[in-house]
Structures are given as structure tokens and as C-alpha cells.
Amino acid sequence: MSAARPYIPRPGVRAPAAPRFRQNRKAELRIWWREVDRVLLGLVLALMVIGSVAVAAASPASARRLSSSSVRLDDLYFYWAHLRWQVVGLAVMLGASLLTRDTARRGGIILGAAMIAALVLVPVLGSEVNGAKRWIDLGIRFQPSEFLKPAYAILLAWILSWKLRDPDLPVIPATMGLMGLVGLLLMMQPNLGDAMLFVGAWLAVAMLAGMPMQRIMMAGGAGMAALALAYVFYDNARHRIDSFIGGGTAFDQVDLASKALLGGGWTGAGLWLGRRKMQLPEAHTDYIFSVIGEEFGLLMCGLVVLLYLAIVLRVIVRLLEEENVFALLAAAGLVVLFGGQAFINILVNLQLFPSKGMTLPLISYGGSSTIAQCLTIGLLLALTRRNPFLSRDGLGLKAALARQEKLR
Questions:
Q1: Transmembrane stretches, by residue range (predicted)?
Q2: pLDDT tens-digit series, residues 40-68
Q3: For a 10 Å CB count at each end of the chain, is N or C smaller?
């Protein structure tokens, strides 16, 4: 048998590029694995695993409540759907974590502009669910406010970082205008919970960007005044606050959720053995933390809280040595939105906060929420990537890059 003939390039004919492409892709993945925050990634995956089990526990309650004489949902209907959304979310998370900071910034700006435009269209084209217009149905139904959350943090950081080029630019008023526009569009749905979350994220990022204390006090006073005006003139806010204080349908739901959460004791009743969850209106979304408490106990609830705290603290620690202003502000905004939504949901389940209609990030069932939260984590992983040789060995840039090249 004759030996294989070697490839001899001919004039005008390019050599095959596939092997080099595969080698470059493998090298990029190795670099990503060394630079990505594997501790943060592990904490997030742990939350998603708990979420899968929690949705399996809550699925029968929601499936039976939503079944009718004509349509009978399988008890694990929401569980199987949740697994599919988690697979899509994982792909989005890992894909976003591979982005460079410049690409993440550009993508966030484009996504933010698109989702603000979608919010404008929600009152016209939106589909109504439970008395609120928050979704747009274009063959695939999605909630623009969920996808705006990661983009909003990118937009705030991008605008505030302009001050490095020109200290005289009015970046704080510009971000206030953005926050006001988003808040107004959300309250039209109505979606007071997300509006308050966006305001809180703006305040945290603006403070980190160096907003003077006088303006911080003024912003706090304006926020209190806005809340008072919302109570007087905004029916949704008045209804939720009155229900939280003096009873009503929303109060009954939160009271039932609190009783279900505490009813399992320290170790819980066991998977599919909870009874109070069958009466919860949104067991698989808004009140899934109460389902965890009833079926798996307060110890598991404590573990969930610790995981959220660990994610927030891990990002903060990761940002302590960050020198890029945009990355610092964007990551801070992302983690405030993520952690803030988690703890608002938990406080509602504990009957310590008015009902907001918010999901528990990475745990509750939901297509838009799952993918958007995974995108948030993916952007956090991209923005907090670090070259380990630059931070640990104190090497110069050229020496660190040379050492990294040898490891390839």
C-alpha cells in the first residue's frame, strides 16, 4: 500500500483551515476555564439543581389548579418544561461567559434598546395574564422586563463610565432619565415590583460611581415621596400595601405561603407530601420558596439563602481588585438585580414584604425568567474573568502572557 501523499499547496489555493480553527477553539476554551470564576459557576449550578427539585415538588399543585375539564395537565408538566428551559438557560449562560468585555457591552446596549422598545409596545401588543400586561406574544411569548434587567445594568455602567472621558458630562442625570423612563413603562403594565428593583439597582450603581452624599439624600427623599404619591394615585401600589397591612386576597395568599413554609419544620414533610402547597396560587413561581420549606424544611431554606448570599459576596470579593470602571459598575448592577430579586421573593414568602409577583432567580419555573437570569450570570462570569498569573504572581504583562502561551 502506498503512503499517503503530503498536502502540497498550489498557487491561489488556500490550505484547509478547519484544524487550525479547532485548535484555536480549544485554546480559547482552556483559557476560559483558567480565567472563569469556577466557584461562582459552582454556586449557580447548585442553585439550579435545587430549583429542578423544587419545581418537581411544586408542579403537581400548579398543574392540578390549572387543569380543567377539557385540558388535563400531567402532575409533572411544569417540571419537564422547567428542565427544557434550564438546558436553554445553561447554553445562554456559558455562551455569554465566553464574551469579551467589549462584546458584552455592545450586546447589552443593543439588547437594552430592543427591550425598552418592547416595553413601549407592551400596552399595545401585550397579552394579559392575571390582570397585568407584561408579556409579548410573537409566536413565542416573552417578558421584556426580564431581559431588560441584565441589559439595564450594562446601560447604567456604560453611561456612568463616560465620566472618565469628560468629567463634566451629566452622567448621573442621564441615568436618572433612563431609570425614570423604565420605571414609568413598568408601572403602566402594572409591575411595581420590578420598577422598585430597577430604582434600587440605579441607586446602588450611582453610589458606587461616586454620586455625592447630598444627591444620595435627595434621591432617598424623592423615592419616599414617589412611594407616597404612588399609594395615593396608583391603584396597584395602594392595593398591595393595603393588602399587606390590613388583609385582603393578596394578604391571604402571603399568609398561606408563610404557613406552608413554616409547616414543614426543620426537615420538611418530604417530597410530594406537602398539603398546604396545594392551595397556593403560584406554587411553582412566586411561592416556590414556601414549597421548599414545607417539603424540605427550614434547613433547606437556610441553605438556599446562604447560596444567594455566597453568590453576592463572591462577586463583591471578585470586584475588589477590579480596575476597569465599566466592568466594576456593570457587575455590581447585575449582582444587585439578581440578589435583590431573590431576597424580595424570600421576604414576601416570609410575610415581611408586600406581594410583588417576582420569581425566585434560578429556582422558580419560567421561560423568560430562567433564560434572563442565566444571561445575567453569564455576563457576570464574563465581566469577572481574571488572568490568574497577573493577579497571583505579580508578573509583568509580557511575562504573564509568555507563561500562558507555554501552557497552551
A1: 39-57, 77-96, 108-127, 147-164, 171-189, 195-211, 216-234, 296-317, 324-350, 362-383
A2: 999 999 999 999 999 999 999 888 888 77
A3: N
DSSP state of 36: S
The model's pLDDT over 242-296, given as tens digits with 9 standing for 90+, comes to 666 665 555 667 778 888 888 888 988 888 888 888 888 888 888 999 999 999 9
DSSP-derived secondary structure for 321-359: T---HHHHHHHHHHHHHHHHHHHHHHHHHTTSS------
Give DSSP secondary structure letters for 122-166: HHHHEEEETTEEEEEESSSEE-HHHHHHHHHHHHHHHHHGGGGT-
pLDDT tops 80 at residue 24: no
CA distance 102 to 75: 45
Reported residue count of the chain is 408
CB 273 within 8 A of CB 295: yes
- Tell me the pLDDT tens digit for each residue of 220-244: 777 777 777 776 666 666 666 666 6
Q: Which cell numbers in the block locate residue 146? A: 426580564
> What is the grid cell recorded at 158?
456604560
Full DSSP string of 65-126: HH--SS----TTHHHHHHHHHHHHHHHHHHHHHTS-HHHHHHHHHHHHHHHHHHHHHHHHHE
- All cell numbers assigned to 104: 458584552
Q: Provide the residue ranges of all domains of the chain, joining segments of one domain with +.
A: 37-382
